[in-house]
UniProtKB/TrEMBL annotation:
Pfam families per the UniProt record, alphabetical: Ephrin_rec_like
SMART domains, per the entry: Ephrin_rec_like (SM01411)
InterPro entries listed in its UniProt record: Growth_fac_rcpt_cys_sf, Tyr-kin_ephrin_A/B_rcpt-like
Domain Tyrosine-protein kinase ephrin type A/B receptor-like: 95-133
Protein name, entry field: Tyrosine-protein kinase ephrin type A/B receptor-like domain-containing protein
Length: 271
């Protein structure tokens, strides 16, 4: 019956397409018009009369609409969740056309029915397959490029005080220098110096992934003055983090700790 587009060939269902081709289960099509070349279009592999073919097996990503195998299209795939095969939207974290695949590392899809996954934005990471929502980098970490699957640590002498940072901020008033600046973490230990005197009562260690500017300070053997970290001179004690003291046998005015005087002849004159 060319008018209806359907026919019956012995026990099997065949189909006549718009161009007049009879489609059989042997991957060949015999044209009704002898002037046209034989072309394979579809293959229903011999479906008994009255039964719907397994379209998804024959043409992946398609379902039977009662007359033909129809592709699901962009952002959809065949689902049997309700029993009968139907087209459903790709869930968040997956995308595709006629089938849904998990988003690759560094990519995500937040909405159902996505045809393509998007690149993870700067300041965020998409660490696993099938990510539905980018995760902002935590304090002390950053991601400077799109499609990142991890966040990098801020190195010493830099910090990130905002969640979702795309870069770390250098210590120092004008960018500073990693040669004289660093970022510190306080340890509650005793630091012993000359003649067994305990000074200062705390100790600091350089750390990475600092979360705020308050962690910035001068490196060991440097002191802070006028916005810069300068090398300590003879008689100064500079354990780090802008702490300055005076070694035994030397004296300095607390208001000018970099102006150090050495005590001669009578050391008792120095505190």
């Amino acid at each position: 019956n060319p008018a209806s587009g359907n026919c019956r060939f012995f026990y099997w269902v065949c189909h006549i397409d718009a161009d007049g081709y009879i489609l059989f289960d042997n991957n060949t099509a015999n044209p009704l018009d002898n002037e046209r070349e034989s072309t394979w279009v579809k293959d229903f592999h011999g479906v008994p009369t009255g039964e719907a073919p397994d379209c998804n097996a024959l043409l992946p990503g398609s379902h039977w609409d009662g007359a033909d195998c129809v592709l699901c299209g962009a952002g959809k795939e065949v689902s049997r969740a309700t029993g009968e095969p139907i087209c459903e939207q790709c869930p968040p974290g997956r995308s595709g056309t006629n089938r849904c695949d998990a988003c690759f590392l560094g990519h995500f899809s937040a909405d159902a029915g996505s045809a393509e996954c998007s690149e993870c934005p700067v300041g965020h990471k998409c660490a696993g397959l099938g990510t539905s929502n980018p995760v902002p980098c935590p304090l002390g970490f950053f991601a400077s490029a799109n499609a990142s699957d991890s966040c990098g640590q801020c190195s010493a002498a830099t910090y990130a005080d905002t969640v979702g940072s795309s870069q770390c901020t250098p210590c120092g008033p004008s960018g500073g220098s990693s040669e004289t600046w660093t970022t510190w973490h306080e340890l509650l230990v005793q630091r012993t110096v000359d003649e067994g005197a305990a000074w200062p009562a705390q100790q600091y260690v350089p750390v990475a992934s600092a979360t705020n500017k308050s962690a910035c300070g001068c490196k060991t053997d440097h002191y802070f003055k006028d916005g810069h970290c300068l090398p300590c001179t003879k008689g100064m004690l500079c354990p780090g983090n802008n702490i300055v003291g005076t070694a035994g046998g030397y004296w300095a005015n607390p208001l000018a700790p970099d102006s150090v005087w050495e005590c001669f002849k009578n050391p008792s004159r120095c505190p």
